[in-house]
Give the backbone structure.
Amino acid sequence: MLTAPEFGRNADSERERTARCLLSYAEQLPLTTEERLELVLAALRKLPAEATPEQGLDALLALLPGHDPSSFPPDHPRIARLHMPCQYLGRPRSGLSGFLAQWGWLAVVGLLLALTLLLNISQ
C-alpha cells in the first residue's frame, strides 16, 4: 500500500510528452537525423522534469543555429515561431483556418449526404 503520492510518474509522462513534441517538431528542420537528436537532447537537458511542451519548444528555438534568411532555399524556408502548429503552442487556432479545422469535417459529411440524396433522386 502506498503511503505517499507518486510524483515521478506524472513528471515522467510530462517529460515524455515534451520529448515527443520536440522530436515531431525537429523532423521539420532541414538537418540530419543526428543533428536533430542532439538538438532535442540538448533542449531536454536544459528543462526541468515537469516542463511543458511549450517550454520545450522555447528551449529548442533558443538552441537553433542562426542563419541568414537568404541562405535558405525556397523549398525549406526559415522556420519561425509563427510556423509552429497551434496545438504545440497551447493556444487554439483562430480565423478561417481554425474554423475549417474544427468544422470542416461537418461540411464534408454534409456534402456527401447531399450527393447521395441527389443520386437517389436522379434514379
User: Anything to note?
Assistant: Residues 7-91 form one domain. The chain is about 65% helix and 0% strand.
